[in-house]
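Course assignment 3, question 2. Fill in each field.
Student: A.L.
Task: Predict the tertiary structure for the chain below.
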Amino acid sequence: MRVLGLMSGTSADGVDAVLAQFEGPPQRPRWRLLASAATPYPDDLRRRLIAVGQGERIPAAELLELAEAVTEAQAEAARRCDPDGRAQLVGCHGQTLWHRPPAEGRRGASWQLLQGPLLAQLLGQPVVFDFRSADLALGGQGAPLVPAADAALLPPIGGWRALLNLGGIANLTLLPPASGPDRGAPVLGWDCGPANTLLDLAVQRFSGGRQSFDADGAWARSGRSDETLIQRWLQEPYLQQRPPKSTGRELFGGADLERRLSELETSAGARGPGANQLDPADGLASLTAFSAAVVAQDLAQAPVVPLELLVAGGGARNGLLLEQLQRRCRGLWVRPLTELGIDASEREALAFALLAWWHRLGHPGSLASVTGAQRPAVLGVCALPG
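Answer field:
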């Protein structure tokens, strides 16, 4: 079956789309990529999504218009990837506005902005969406959902294999080996903490809105990181929390950035007279190193030791961030997922294409070992064109 997958992550920079073909057993399908495309959001749409995702209040009428704009952007991305309409099914994640993990005495909830029936009508194809609700209803985190797809699409190796997505949030998948005593172990996965959320917000702040990200980490490379402060940040509650766990911009957003920049400025002032104003390059260097340190800490505390770390997501194009990962994840082979034939921007869109196919087959798409739900669930809701 040919399935189109659409994904827009926490960074809210645009839509990644893939057209993939799946056949065979759902647990280990035969698959191939037929096409892919990355479509940026218009600047104004991205700005509004980030603002609302950080708690900015807007009238209901504007929120409705925002949902329509997101849906139309998803449709445009689908057409660019599949101009001939070859897809038989579409899986669309939508745009996360707010994620609330379950806590003691309170169920979890997650809001992915999308008008699924409208998207189905615009494309003339069935659309599977709202992938997180079923897992949340079963007491799960509703995230991350990609580890189940990783386990199905990537072959096991002789030891544990780790996959890291560096989107707005960094999340890990740990896949058990092909042989040995851990062969039948459950897949593990969780959200580590910030990857690009704080970095991108800081770049926009320091550049007065002229830049939206630090290309290849060039700006940060000219600065100096504050290792003492980074080690203090690593002791924060979420970063010490054991999986299952998930997070987003509601925790690592604008307010969190301002706090960290204030602490960096105070730390700079403590170094002596004339140093009490934070150099933007130093701020970006510290945030870049912090993103890598969060992942390294989680891997060091993981119950298994992987042989390699495959890196995907927008952060995989940040050379300094990858260098920091290699330095901090000592003894681990760090390499891009592209070496396995999946581009950094394709992995999550491919995962949601697979989840849509699984929905059609009635095959569970979640892993209780990852989300903490009572049991696996078939994910998503299907909207048909009129």
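Instructor remarks: The longest strand covers residues 89-100. The chain has a mean pLDDT of 96.
Grade: pending
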